[in-house]
Amino acid sequence: MHVQNARRWAPRGTRPWIAVAAAVVIAAVVRLLLHPLIGPVMPSATFGVAAALIEYYFGLAPAATVMVLGLGIADYLFVPPYAQIDVFDRRDLILVISYPLITLIIITLIERLRRAQFRAELIASVAQSRYEMLLRHDNERAIARRAVDETHRLLRHLAQHNKAFILIQALERNGAVAINGASAPGIAGVRLALPSEIAPGPRYADVHPEDIQRFWNGLWPGSHRVRIASSNGPSKLVDCICERFTTHAGDFLVLRIGD
């Protein structure tokens, strides 16, 4: 995979150049402190280390700047004759050839490694984003599949218990009564579209008015004792079951006479 942004891994702005100035000063101070001990040996060593560190954290251009500045400072202060620019001998030639060559090889290798690392991080970030998108899509499909299954179960339930069906009530997701004039498909002559929150079933008219009012005030899943008119005379208590169905069209409570 070709990633063009891989070469833009280094930070931008003024911070890299402040780090360049600090690295050059620190490298010069350390070399000055070591000069009484090692003399003219390895005059550019500290500047090479500084260039490598700057390359790792800030990129190729700041590292090359440290290398060039370090070359001038090392040749002027740490190659005999010291503090003279009018003399150019074999020692100066060795420094001018060896120091840039070695430093360029090191910072070039570090640059390639940093680009490869940044490229791998970009690819991993893209892969993570795509994986999260796939997970969300899978969750959405699972929720939709569950809603469809619940809808089919609701329709089968209404068809199976049509004669024992009392009412159906639509709820919001938080459980409060929601619809006003909602509509739903009819099952076996059961009318589900009414200008109210409760749609009646075949046995709705047989329920005692006080129980109807109780259902309007609040209905919940579970067992209920309902007074239903009988053909022999007064109403009698009947065990009823209220079940909740979660579908893509919303949540529904279905109240029916128990088996």
Automatic annotation (TrEMBL):
Pfam families: DUF4118 (PF13493). InterPro entries: KdpD_sf, KdpD_TM. The chain crosses the membrane at residues 17-34, 46-73, 93-110. GO terms for biological process: phosphorelay signal transduction system. It is found in: Membrane. It is a multi-pass membrane protein. Gene3D superfamilies: Backbone structure of the membrane domain of e. Coli histidine kinase receptor kdpd. Residues 17-120 form the Sensor protein KdpD transmembrane domain. GO terms for molecular function: ATP binding; kinase activity. GO terms for cellular component: membrane. It comes from the Bacteria. Keywords: ATP-binding, Kinase, Membrane, Nucleotide-binding, Phosphoprotein, Transferase, Transmembrane, Transmembrane helix, Two-component regulatory system. This is Sensor protein KdpD transmembrane domain-containing protein. It comes from Paraburkholderia megapolitana.
